[in-house]
Amino acid sequence: MDRVRPLEGKTAIVTGASQGIGRGIALCLGRAGAQVVVNYLDDSAAASSVVEEIERAGGAAVAIQADVTKRADAERLVARTVDAFGTIDILVNNAGTGLSKPFAEFTEADWDLLIEVDLKSVFLCCQAAGAVMRRQGSGAIINIASVAAKLALPYRTVYSTIKAGVMMFTASLATEWAPHHIRVNCIAPGTILTPLVEKNFATGSLEPDKVLDRTPLRRFGEPEEIGQAVVFLASDAAAYITGQTLAVDGGWSIWGGWTPEQALREMP
Amino acid sequence: MDDREKGFNLTAVRQSTVDEGFSPLPRVGNVLASGVLMMRAVIPPMKKQRSGSIINTASGVGIRPRPTLAAYCASKGGVIALSKAAATELGDDGIRVNALCPGMIDTEMTRRVIESHPDPEEALARMMLNYPLGRMGTVEEVAYAALFLASPESSYITGTAFPVDGGRTLH
């Protein structure tokens, strides 16, 4: 296997790839040799700039608009990918949204939005792309969950529940589609520096210092650090890995909450 | 296999927690002590350069234990917890610590275990029922995971228990 371009000749769809983590994933996949479908909802200019950046680096990419919470759109996304590149080898379910607020104030519309964007889109895209992968007898699916899928945090009751759903969806589908040689894995990012997170810092709904206090590596992640993990899981290097949720979180999810100095100081 | 080799090669020790003679201490202690000593040796230079990646080999049984291998399961669960504890202490110095958790890998040792069954082919088929991918892993597949964890490609990954097990620990 080529370690520099392990995905040469493969075709990948990344949902929600016009910005943030999705953009980082698309760039890494392009660099690894994959032909990349940059899916976006409404920002065609941002999606085009991701395509251009991949092409400038010598890769191949197209932008395809689709609202992946709609079955017809998900199916059109898959059909147009096959038209453009002839196959689908990799599906990255990245499109998603977050919402933090007191549970008592959560509306039914909030619930429906999160369920549709964070979970139903995964269901629809896996069925649509999975049909192609099952025919060809191979494929790799990577879902993006969150550190909140495994850790309980206040004001994220609904978000955490749904992301935990993505984790279990991953594991269950992995057992079901293993006989078709389709691997299904998940990544649980910690706090990654994206426009969304920077907005949350600005509005005060996320406090940078508090996050860093809980992160053993003491820094935020970069979108391309998620992209590199996606490349690994999508490649043949991970041919024996399926159903797993890989934490790419600087150690957040194993943290006891104390810095080593605090822990020493506060020892009985 | 002499006693010394047995001390490290815990798969050879078939014991359950309720066996009267069962004492996990010497064997589990050996595995953890060797991990601690090795880490202690490499941490100072890693701290000096403010970067490093430590990979401890645990096992899927540290996540999903199985019967009759109590000491082995305990030692591998210990390696996972040890790795996580070290990761929380060393993150500030830019040192990452992860635990590799292989499933059944096609090695000489595994082959010896399979061949020791009266009907090796049937035994292997039965073992593979627990593996969604339906096969043993290769040595290279474990090595690729180690390479990934050693490389800057995993620069934001620390403290994980990293299964390379064809899905064995899923169910």
Shape label of chain B: globular
Q: In percent terms, what proportion of residues of chain B is strand? A: 5-15%
Kindly state the percentage of residues in helix of chain A.
40-55%
Strand content of chain A: 5-15%
Count of DSSP E strands of chain A?
7
**CATH-assigned fold name of chain A:** Rossmann fold
Main beta sheet of chain B: 3 strands, parallel
Radius of gyration of chain B: 17 Å
Mean pLDDT of chain B: 90
What does this protein structure show overall?
- The complex is a heterodimer of chains A (268) and B (171).
- Chain A has 268 residues and is of the alpha/beta class.
- Chain A has one domain (11-262): NAD(P)-binding Rossmann-like Domain (Rossmann fold).
- Chain A is built from nine helices and seven strands; from the N terminus they run βαβαβαβαβαβαααβα.
- Chain A has a seven-stranded parallel beta sheet, with helices on both faces.
- In chain A, β4, α4 and β5 form a beta-alpha-beta unit.
- The radius of gyration of chain A is 18 Å and the shape is globular.
- The mean pLDDT of chain A is 94.
- Chain B has 171 residues and is mainly alpha-helical.
- In chain B, α3 links the parallel β1 (52-57) and β2.
- The longest helix of chain B has 25 residues, at 25-49.
- Chain B has a three-stranded parallel beta sheet with strand order 1-2-3, sandwiched between helices.
- Mean pLDDT of chain B is 90; it is low at 3-7.
- Helix content of chain B is 47%, strand content 11%.
- Chain B has one domain: NAD(P)-binding Rossmann-like Domain (Rossmann fold, 3-Layer(aba) Sandwich), CATH 3.40.50.720.
- At the A-B interface, α5, α8 and β7 of A face α3, α6 and β3 of B.
Element layout with pairings:
The complex is a heterodimer of chains A (268) and B (171).
Chain A: E1 11-14, H1 20-31, E2 35-40, H2 44-56, E3 60-65, H3 71-85, E4 90-93, H4 108-136, E5 139-144, H5 157-177, E6 182-189, H6 195-203, H7 208-213, H8 223-234, E7 245-248, H9 260-265
Parallel strand pairs in A: 1-2, 1-4, 2-3, 4-5, 5-6, 6-7
Helix pairs in contact in A: 1-2, 1-8, 3-4, 4-5
Chain B: H1 3-8, H2 25-49, E1 52-57, H3 70-90, E2 95-102, H4 108-115, H5 120-128, H6 139-150, E3 161-164
Parallel strand pairs in B: 1-2, 2-3
